[in-house]
Amino acid sequence: MGLVIVTRSLERLGRMTGQLRAQSWTLLTSRIGWKIAAFHILALVVLIAGIFVIAENRRGLVQAKMDSLSAQATLIANVLIETAVETAPEPQLEAEAARTVLQRLSRVYVPEETRALIYNQEAQLVADSRLIAGTVEVEPLPRAGEAGLGQEARSFVQTVWTSFQNLNRSREERAALSRTALDDVRMAIEEGRIVRGVRRAPSGEQVVSVTLPIQPIQAVVGAVTFESYDLDLLVAAERRAILPYIVAATLVMLVSALALTIQVAWPIRRLADNAREVRLAGGRRIPLIRLPERRDEIGDLGRAFADMTTALYDRLDAIERFAADVSHEIKNPLTSIRSAAEVLPKARDELRRDRLIEVIQHDVKRLDRLITDISNASRLDAELARDDLALVDLDQLARDLARTYQSERSNQRGVTVEVTGESRPVLVRAHEGPISRVLFNLVDNAITFSPEGGQVRLTLVPSAHARIQGGRSLARLIVDDDGPGIPPANLDTVFDRFYTQRPEGAAFGNHSGLGLSICKQIVEAHGGRIRAENRPDRDGEVAGARFIVELPRAER
């Protein structure tokens, strides 16, 4: 039991895998899918290209700013070494002299958005260019009631922008953001090297910082820090620079949406409107949209819809013609029965009465046969759609039918039915019942037209001589008789419904005229074809009729 469950589970998994592969392959080969993907990828490429360009520009600007600050810090440090460092008994930085130096140089070498700080050996602040110059920072307060929403919105935008920027930063850059000014000072004093980077100030803004150790010979007596607070201007410049890329990506997306609307939504809307018109037309034919210029799935849908609707129209027309033909064919025996029934009470001699009763009985049988054939013809489509195809051996089927006729029906008129050639399997994938009906109707028709003592021959063409159509090998079955043949004008119409032209001497009313029509319907439903022709003799005269059936051959 457990093995059965596992086996079934594996079978379901295999089917699901196969369906997934089929769907994946459909997506990969979808023209519309590629168009949609191309538009969206193009917009994404434009945006990503803008991000990388801006990131490179930003790195270049920050690097240039750091180089400028390094040059300024080096100048201040050299001046401090010369004028504000005592060498005895130990090298140390004189705080008052350092403040004097910074005060004199800050007017020239410290720009407005830059701040210079001097620290002693213990990392204590000695001089600040803003305090020396008496710089006062003014920041206007928001109006009452406006601080909440606007500030939160700006804070949210700033957070999103900062997170977005962090994606393009290296690990060292992210680590520098978390350092403080004192961390940089201690690192420069302890390690005796320049410390540079972009860090975040307590206020949240980003600061470009360069810290340079003050080192007369070997001992470090302090540090000079230059900080630039105009990085916000750089960020604003970044935003302005990336704006064209955002606009371009937005335009690409809008064009993509418009293109998809034109390429997908509008044709589908046209097809939907066309389908609605078909539904409201009540069977009346209306012009159909085929979209011949489209070579993608939408075009396939339009053409499939038009073909399906045309097939429905043809089917409605066929049903109407069938109903009209049935009405006409049923009226004939009914009219005959009514006439005989009206005359019967007036008949005075027994011979005439018996003749009228015989006419009524004959017409009743004719009507019963007609209704039976009509019923079989109307059920044929459902039978072909419901039953599964199977391998059918035409050779065996023909030989079984020939034996049946030889033992029963054909002996009444001395007509023999035989299969010519050697017995060999001729396989087709078909419905066995309907294909048997084709053979039965063709042989029955041939016997009707054959003279007494005639012969009906069934021939199966060997595979070596089989016709090739559309890359397929066709099995061919030929039914010959010795009758008068078919008038050339009727070689096509013999397959019409209720075609009842019979030879002289044939019993009237024994055939409904649906046999050959049913044969054609069954053969075409199996992807084959049937045709009629006259079989000539050696002198070129008509020696009988020939019906040829061709069906796609099946492999074992």
Q: Helix segment count? A: 13
Overall radius of gyration: 50 Å
Net shape: rod-shaped
In the predicted model, the low-confidence regions spanning at least 5 consecutive residues are 1-7, 19-27, 505-509
Nearest-integer average pLDDT = 76
Largest sheet: 6 strands, mixed
**Can you tell me the CATH class of the largest domain?**
Alpha Beta
The counted number of beta strands is 15
User: Structurally, how many domains make up the residues?
Assistant: 3
Tell me the β content.
15-25%
Q: Can you give the helix content as a percent range?
A: 55-70%
For the structure shown, list the relevant keywords.
6-stranded mixed beta sheet, Heat Shock Protein 90, alpha+beta, rod-shaped, Beta-Lactamase
Describe this structure in words.
The protein is an alpha+beta fold. The chain has helices at 2-28, 31-83, 95-109, 129-133, 147-166, 171-177, 181-191, 231-280, 297-343, 350-386, 394-407, 432-449, 515-525; strands spanning 85-86, 92-93, 114-120, 125-128, 195-200, 206-214, 222-228, 390-393, 416-420, 427-430, 455-460, 468-469, 472-480, 529-536, 542-552. It contains 13 helices and 15 strands. Strands 9, 11, 12, 13, 14 and 15 form a 6-stranded mixed beta sheet that branches. Strand 1 and strand 2 form a beta hairpin. Helix 2 packs across helix 3. The protein is rod-shaped. The chain crosses the membrane at residues 32-55, 242-266.
